[in-house]
Design a protein that fits this description.
Layout: H1 2-23, E1 37-39, E2 46-48, E3 53-54, E4 63-64, H2 67-78
Antiparallel strand pairs: 1-2, 3-4
Length: 79
């Protein structure tokens, strides 16, 4: 009788462990494409494109890390 009770407890423990192992699994996180990194035209700091300040001159294609660097670069170019 004791052997049967121990066997039932062992089976219940194995079932509980297996259920917990399968419940804990989640779908793998989807990876997004990395954002392009560019260098500031004034100081060379690398930063994501979304955080850059574009040049105010038309079609220059230059980007800056801050408004101060954009202003400094454009005032130096105007002189």
């Amino acid at each position: 009788m004791l052997k049967l009770l121990l066997l039932a407890l062992l089976v219940a423990a194995v079932v509980a462990v297996l259920r917990g192992a399968f419940r804990g699994r989640s779908a793998p996180a989807t990876l997004t494409a990395p954002e392009p990194i560019v260098a500031c035209a004034h100081c060379g700091l690398l930063l994501p494109v979304a955080e850059t300040w574009p040049a105010t001159q038309r079609a220059s294609g230059r980007v800056f890390c801050s408004e101060a660097h954009r202003t400094a670069d454009e005032s130096a170019a105007a002189s």
